[in-house]
Amino acid sequence: YEGDNLLVDYVGRFETLLYSYNELCTHLALPDKINRLPRIGASSGRGLYKNSFNSSTRDLVSDLYAVDCKTFGYSFDD
Description:
Layout: H1 17-27, H2 55-64, H3 66-72
């Protein structure tokens, strides 16, 4: 960010990584790469990110990344 301005043209979301990857491939004219994102070292059963924090770490992350949480709609509310 520079002030309130996001300094990049596109922000992909990890939650929809393949979709974001495919959008970039389309934008960069790489049709042969669409849907070809390898999954390496993927874990299973991690659950929601909210469950990885206790009240102390939740407050810390909320404060440090307040702008990002607001911009991308992340919260620790149930």
